[in-house]
Amino acid sequence: MLQSLHQIFMSLVPVSFIVFLGWLAGYKKIVDNQHSHTLATYVMSFSFPCALFVLTATSKPKELLNGEFVMAFWLGLVGMFILSFAIYKFLLKRNNRDCAQGAFVCSFPDMAFMGIPIFSALLGKQALLSIAIGNICTSLIIIPIVTIFLSTGNSRESIQKTIRKVISKPLVFAPILGTIYSLLNLQLPEIIKNSLNLIGSTTSGVSLFALGLMMSCFAIRFSKLALMNIALKNIVHPLLMLALVAIFGISGIFAKEAILLCAMPTATMTAMFALKYETLAEESTTSAILGTLISLLTLTIFMIILKV
């Protein structure tokens, strides 16, 4: 238990530090907090797509097509999105933009920023494959769906035109190209890989700094909506994955990886979407910050349950 607490704490400190720097820069007017929108665009249009392309293109086809594990894991991510969307739609009576953004917050785990350091320390580097598989799911299914809803809004733009516009976005077509590249068994040239990694590696720092800038624009509030998001993401999501693991008969390290990834707090990327599309920005940011802090407790509990 002490080791689990130590690893979670060690991953939270750098995250909190960069978010604090962003908040301080905005609060002290060192950086105009309005630039957080520009930074979000940079992350979503440049650095993150490059990182996703390299991640998918360098994965082995047999690893991306790992049968029951992939099916169960993807169903856990997409199923949580559908469940959360339904809660927003039918219980909270929200419009489709709010439903999509809220469901995104409740179903997209922080696999990269928290998952990588924690899994590397506790489960070994081989566990990073599950992070790649999870990111492919969010990249190929959830992110395009969210982008369609947020891009369409209340306009009368045809769904076909919206889909074409969404597919043309780097955040969507980059992992698709990467997956195709991997399935064709092509080798990514080292110079291209290094070039893309150079910009892709900035995703974590820039998005966390932008999140801090966003925080300086308004106070973090314990709203009912934010608390609901955190409960769904940190507690309900891993429980849903626990049930799916049992149904599909998955055991061992793969079962632990799937459940723990779903127990991760919501990804910072969800706040970037909220800012860019001006939808539930305050609630999404609050969910990301408070959810990350609360995960110190919830993650530890699930680690104890799973005997990690």
List key phrases describing it:
15 helices, Na+/H+ antiporter like fold, globular, 80% helix
What is the highest CATH level, the class? Mainly Alpha
Helix content: over 70%
Could you give the order of the helices and strands? HHHHHHHHHHHHHHH
Specify the number of helices: 15
> Structural class of the helix and strand makeup?
mainly alpha
Question: What name is given to the CATH topology?
Answer: Na+/H+ antiporter like fold
Beta-strand percent range: under 5%
Low-confidence stretches: none
- Give the tally of β-strands: 0
- Name the shape in a single word: globular
Structure description:
By secondary structure, the protein is mainly α. It has a single domain (2-306), classed as Na+/H+ antiporter like fold. The chain is 80% helix and 0% strand. The protein contains 15 helices and no strands. The chain has helices at 2-27, 36-57, 61-64, 67-91, 96-107, 111-122, 128-152, 159-167, 170-183, 190-200, 203-215, 224-248, 252-262, 268-277, 281-306. The N and C termini lie close together (9 Å). The model has no long low-confidence stretch (mean pLDDT 85).
Summarize the structure.
With 308 residues, the protein is an all-alpha fold.
